[in-house]
Design goal:
- The complex is a heterodimer.
- By secondary structure, chain A is mainly alpha-helical.
- Helices cover about 85% and strands about 0% of the residues of chain A.
- In chain A, helix 1 packs across helix 4 (about 145-195), helix 2 (about 25-80) runs antiparallel to helix 3 (about 85-140) and helix 2 (about 25-80) packs parallel to helix 4.
- Residues about 200-205 and about 240-269 of chain A have low confidence and may be disordered.
- Chain B is of the alpha+beta class.
- Helix content of chain B is about 45%, strand content about 15%.
- Chain B has helices at about 20-35, 35-55, 75-85, and strands spanning about 1-5, 10, 55, 70.
- The longest helix of chain B is centred in the middle third of the chain and has 18 residues, at about 35-55.
- Chain B starts with a strand and ends in an 8-residue tail after the last helix.
- The interface of A and B includes residues 4, 161 and 167 of A.
Chain lengths: ~270, ~90
């Protein structure tokens, strides 16, 4: 049988089963209205849950983005220091982070979609629930229990289909959110363990440690060179002037600085 | 007749479209029966597109059950199968 008709029959069967359980048709109206309000609350909670989940993914994405930028910078620093091996390591970690980011991005889009769907489902349901309340009051005021039956059945079946649809949407959103939370939790764990480079995990960052060490040794080498140069100059007679050696170097700087100043003055005219 | 697209709402479609929709629906059904995921997707999307272009949205205040109900665009074939066997996809 047709898929569309079977779907319709399944929804209708649910409504009929619920109707059969009711004894006084007019009590059915109030009971059903209560259930509708509960479902409305549930959808709203669903929207909030999805939003929370989406924000969590957003935070993780920001964090991974920073991580990726940092690794990129480290690769550049390493390369300019002539350490291709270190640059390669940084880049390979960066590509791992990028992979996680792409995954999170997909999740983010999916959560955004669920959030929109639930929001509009909640608006649709709200409109139907309002319509049902009006109808319920009219039916109760106008008809005897026997007369009311048909009208109640109509209204009930109509709203019951909407509730089934919305209920399904919530269920799907909950399933998706649960999946994402599990994955988000896994990423948090990876970050905490240091396997995934976290921006705040400074001490665990071996690439940075190596770069710092290199930076420091470079600095030490530089100082050594300078000292050697000073000492070799020191063997010349001028060394007797002592501190004058330092002032010797100084006039050279103002002289250099004077050039741009002249240039600027020239431009000023 | 009123047609519902799950997750989207109800549309009023002229009864004269029934034959055309049934042809598309038969393709959907055949695909689901054969576990043909690609065929399912194609048939589902064709059906959705046709109903969307033919239908006009039903006023949200209307409390009437739908004659036909369609799976929405992101409902997988597995979900449709579960729904058809009524394995609790509709809560309550």
């Amino acid at each position: 049988m047709s898929v569309m008709k079977r779907f319709s029959m399944i929804f209708r069967a649910k409504a009929n089963k619920a109707l059969d359980r009711m004894e006084d048709p007019r009590e059915t109206l109030d009971y059903s209205y209560q259930t509708q309000l509960e479902l409305l609350q549930k959808v709203r909670r669903g929207v909030a849950d999805v939003a929370t989940s989406r924000k969590r993914v957003e935070l993780q994405m920001n964090s991974l983005e920073q991580s990726s930028n940092k690794l990129d910078k480290q690769a550049r620093d390493a390369l300019s220091a002539g350490r291709e091996d270190l640059a390669r390591e940084a880049l390979s970690r960066k590509s791992g982070v990028q992979g996680q980011l792409a995954d999170l991005n997909t999740q983010y889009t999916s959560l955004q979609g669920e959030e929109e769907k639930l929001t509009s489902a909640s608006q649709r349901l709200q409109a139907k629930v309002d319509a049902f309340r009006t109808k319920k009051e009219t039916i109760k005021a106008t008809y005897t229990a026997a007369e009311a039956q048909t009208r109640i059945n109509e209204a009930f079946t109509g709203i019951s289909e909407e509730m089934g649809d919305v209920g399904m949407a919530i269920q799907r959103a909950e399933d998706k959110t649960a999946q994402m939370q599990a994955r988000a939790g896994a990423i948090d764990e990876l970050m905490a363990s240091g396997a995934l480079d976290d921006v705040v995990s400074g001490p665990r960052d071996d690439i940075q440690a190596e770069l710092d060490r290199m930076g420091a040794s470079h600095d030490v080498d530089g100082q050594l060179e300078r000292m050697k140069a000073e000492l070799s100059q020191g063997s010349a007679p001028r060394q007797l002037e002592g501190s004058a050696g330092a002032s010797d170097g100084q006039p050279a700087q103002p002289a250099q600085a004077a050039q741009p100043a002249d240039h600027q003055a020239g431009e000023g005219q | 007749m009123i047609v519902r697209i799950l997750g989207e709402g109800q549309l009023e479609v002229d009864d004269s479209a029934a034959d055309e929709l049934n042809v598309l629906d038969a393709k959907l059904e055949a695909a689901v029966e054969k576990h043909d995921e690609a065929g399912y997707r194609a048939a589902r999307d064709a059906l959705l597109e046709r109903v969307r272009s033919l239908g006009t949205p039903v006023d949200v205040e209307v409390l009437e059950p739908s004659a036909l109900i369609l799976p929405q665009a992101d409902l997988t074939m597995d979900e449709v199968r579960k729904l058809l066997t009524d394995e609790g996809l509709i809560p309550g």
